[in-house]
Amino acid sequence: MKVFINKVIPAVGYQMLEEAGVDYTVWKERPILDRGQAIQFCKGHDAFISAGQAGLDADFFHQCRHLKVVALHSVGFDGVDIAAATEQGIPVGNTPNVLNKATAETALLLMLTVARRALYHHKKIKKGNWGISQPTEGLGIDLAGKTLGIVGLGRIGTELAAMCTQSWNMKILYHNRNTNPEAEQAFGAKKVSLDTLLAQSDVVSVHTALTDETKGMFGMEQFKKMKPTALFVNTSRGAVHKEDELIAALQKGILWGAGLDVTNPEPMSPENPLLDMDNAVIFPHIGSATQETREAMTRCAVENTLAGLKGEKLPYPVNP
Ligand code: DGY
């Protein structure tokens, strides 16, 4: 049995495969593989551990229908044609739960960085202008006691709600298809319409999966419904917001600030105006990028792989 791994993963993953007596090939080079190259590698292997491989579409699963399992090294599986994998009888697994805290921390980091204008101050020092010379200069905004609107109160949104209620006594509004009674009980979270959430929140943080329904969900129309003092934070998928309209909203002062861990497209162009704005903070999709979390994700991916190779049910399955 041989596993193909398309990017370098934490060492624990190789150890687990070796202990199980499974051979593997790792693509360690840059540039990362394109879809055609990934297919060629997969053809010589029984399983595929895929860290963000683009193009896992119906044709991929048809050409690679010999695969016993595709183990995604991510929780998200937008861009992966799960129906096509299922049709070919290929189990697909992901890495749920283990990245909830790290991703919620990333949302919090964006909130704090934007709220306290951290990059503005850092850049000022770099330009030789240490400190605030006037008491009215370079001021941020408090988060404590403010209202956080969570769009998609699932596992990651719930972690963020816990952090923000425990540490800052923030009020939680949420917009979800389903009611979340646990969060209502634990954090006093209140389910509201999207319009109410936009109108009443001081921070809007997005945690939805990317689906046909959520694609382009945040554009000028929604930004205009937010308070001019509000922050927009997205750690889910870049295609959930319309980037041009976000840029315009920030430039026109319709929004106070934005923090993004996800952009559309990724990677973001170094010419993107958001990178020069004092009220925007951009991270390169690092939501799960801590040593502990990446190791935990690797464990999930390898557990899925080993189960798939044995023809057993995956511990973290995605196919229905
Ligand atoms: C995930 O696991 O889906 C993260 O967004 C990394 O892609």
Structure characterization notes:
There is one protein chain. Helix 5 crosses helix 7. It is built from twelve helices and twelve strands. The relative contact order is 0.15. The longest helix is centred in the last third of the chain and has 19 residues, at 291-309. The two termini are 26 Å apart. It is globular, with a radius of gyration of 21 Å. With 320 residues, it is of the alpha/beta class. The mean pLDDT is 97. The chain has two domains: 2-96 and 290-309, NAD(P)-binding Rossmann-like Domain (Rossmann fold), CATH 3.40.50; 100-282, Rossmann fold. The strands form two sheets. A seven-stranded parallel sheet has the order 8-7-6-9-10-11-12, with helices on both faces. Strands 2-1-3-4-5 form a five-stranded parallel sheet. (2R)-2,3-dihydroxypropanoic acid is lined by residues 52, 74-76, 99, 287-288. The site of (2R)-2,3-dihydroxypropanoic acid has 7 residues, from loops. GO terms for molecular function: oxidoreductase activity. Residues 9-319 form the D-isomer specific 2-hydroxyacid dehydrogenase catalytic domain. Pfam families: 2-Hacid_dh (PF00389), 2-Hacid_dh_C (PF02826). It is an enzyme of class 1 (oxidoreductase).
Brief rundown of the structure:
This protein is of the alpha/beta class and 320 residues long. The chain has 12 helices and 12 strands. The protein has 2 domains: 2-96 and 290-309, 3-Layer(aba) Sandwich (Rossmann fold), CATH 3.40.50; 100-282, NAD(P)-binding Rossmann-like Domain (Rossmann fold), CATH 3.40.50.720.
